[in-house]
Design goal:
By secondary structure, the chain is an alpha/beta fold. It contains twelve helices and 14 strands. Bound molecules: pyridoxal-5'-phosphate. GO terms for molecular function: pyridoxal phosphate binding; transaminase activity.
């Protein structure tokens, strides 16, 4: 699905040097590269503050702690997403309130949003799934009207740009109260282990998020609030600093791969190519098609036999996951999420895709229908 080895080979000299520098100085925790990377990422995204942490799941948890979500309160989250989004809600004693998604763009269905809001609602977590921004203009307007916080889960959409109706352009993760992201190796900006970050434009909140990620301390051994231990390793920050300089090229490569798939499958009777959202660019973390009228799983096994990997993100919606059954939802409650779980198929997409490899993938997919 991804080719991290070829990606590394192309930047080996820079990465190796950055790693060696960290080892030479032995500043493995909170070395200068951590701050340098935060500043570079803030400049890249346009966020005023970037607070790094241990991974994208921690980023979501720290964001909710920083925004003072209280146990018993409700958080609205799409039923079709990676489990991390709901997991931290449950861990903090909050209640995940699922909402169905839009079949074309996979974002939470804003037409259902207000019906999910109760006096207990603390916030909304839109997920920019596969690489496109959710309809942030509508979400922010509803959040403002009801005095709710917005945490954008930007783990799959770093670098995607959203255009508001007044022409303002903002990057994924910088529009809500907090944006969260992950540097898991296969993410669009991936490190060589675990890593994560939060974005915010609020100075006071930035300080609080930083404190929570560091045991709630302002000054070493002075703990103001209950926090966690969630740090980005210096080694990972050094690697990310190098890779950030290549992110625009990475996004362009992903988009070129996506365009080629689009051309190959546009108008196909059984394969629906990704719909491009009107107001967002696409970071193409995943190139996800929908399979119609034939068995998605048969196509997937056929491809596997021919040496073409493909993945199902995600095979089961959150409300049907065993861990969340006690919330009382049942099959049929979120029909779009449920049908997507049966129809979506993500194809290989990465920054160093060779055209002959992609041709083979396309020909193999087409040969299934012959
Ligand atoms: C990857 C991902 C996360 C979690 O990131 P980790 O760094 O693996 O904790 C959260 N949300 C979404 C949508 C993701 O894709």
């Amino acid at each position: 699905m991804v080719d991290l080895r070829s990606q590394y080979e192309l930047i080996k000299t820079e990465v190796d040097q950055a790693i060696q520098e960290v080892i030479d100085t032995t500043a493995f925790i909170n070395g200068p590269q951590v701050k340098e990377f935060s500043i570079a990422l803030a400049a890249y995204t346009g966020a005023k503050y970037v607070i790094t942490c241990g991974n994208g799941t921690d980023a979501l948890q720290i964001a909710m702690m920083g925004l003072d979500f209280q146990p018993g309160q409700e958080v609205i989250v799409p039923a079709f997403t990676y489990v991390a989004t709901a997991e931290v809600i449950a861990l903090l004693g909050l209640k995940p309130v699922f909402i169905d998604v839009v079949p074309d763009t996979y974002e939470l269905d804003i037409t259902q949003l207000e019906s999910k809001i109760t006096p207990k609602t603390a916030g909304i977590v839109p997920v920019h799934l596969y690489g496109q921004c959710s309809n942030m203009e509508a979400i922010l307007a509803i959040a403002q009207k009801h005095n709710l916080k917005v945490i954008e889960d930007t783990a799959q959409a770093i670098g995607a740009k959203y255009t508001f109706s007044d022409g303002t352009v903002k990057q994924a993760g910088t529009m809500g109260d907090v944006g969260t992201t992950s540097f898991f190796p296969s993410k669009n900006l991936g490190c060589y282990g675990d890593g994560g970050a939060m974005f915010t434009n609020d100075a006071e909140l930035a300080e609080k998020l930083h404190m929570i990620a560091n045991h709630g301390q302002k000054k070493k051994y002075h703990h103001h609030i209950v926090g966690v231990n969630s740090r980005l390793d210096t080694l990972q920050a050094a690697i990310l600093k190098v890779k950030l300089q290549h992110l625009d090229r990475y996004s362009a490569s992903r988009n070129a791969v996506a365009d080629t798939y689009d051309q190959a499958f546009a108008g196909h009777a059984h394969l629906k190519i990704p719909v491009r959202a009107a107001n967002s660019t696409h970071a193409f973390h995943q190139y996800t098609i929908q399979v119609a009228g034939i068995s998605r799983d048969k196509l997937k096994s056929y491809l596997a036999e021919k040496g073409v990997p493909s993945m199902v993100y995600y095979p089961l919606p959150l409300h049907q996951q065993e861990a969340y059954l006690d919330l009382g939802f049942k099959k049929g409650d979120f029909p779009v999420a449920e049908s997507l779980c049966e129809n979506v198929l993500s194809l290989p997409i990465h920054t160093e895709m060779k055209s002959e490899d992609q041709d083979y993938i396309i020909e193999t997919i087409k040969s299934f229908f012959k």
